Amino acid sequence: MEASRESLTYHMDAKIINPFLNGTIELFREMLFLSPTPGAPFLLDNDISHRWEISGLIGLVGDSDGIVVLRVTNLLAEKLLFKSNLIVDDETEKKQIINEMISELVNIISAKALYHLKDFNIRLTPPFTIQGKNHTISWPSNSPIIAVPFHTKYGPFEVEISIASRRIG
Known about the structure:
The chain is an alpha+beta fold and about 170 residues long.
């Protein structure tokens, strides 16, 4: 007897993307006391250089697979660190604390989103941070990358999402 094969098709689903964007706005308002203003979403061309110096990433696996990325400049990260009232004199320690802070922010954003995605089987990978001018991210090849720019009084940031939801078809 031959095993049946599932045919999977992939698509971006606003019901999954929007909770991450809403979680971002909630985080900035409730924890950082900033009111981020979203800009117009656009499809990101991964081959074009970017201005972001720090990216916090978290992966999703399950009914939907992909990556959610919070991208910031060094200047915004330093302002967020200052706003947290942490005083760091050593540059190496400052870089490490910023890495941890950005990873934790993307982790909180994702946790807020998952609260609204209870009906989906989605698990999170541990978050991590990449630093460096024009660093690269290995995006999933089966899904477009949606980028949403935001602006705060301390500067811009961007949320980039590439999530493929499985549809059996």
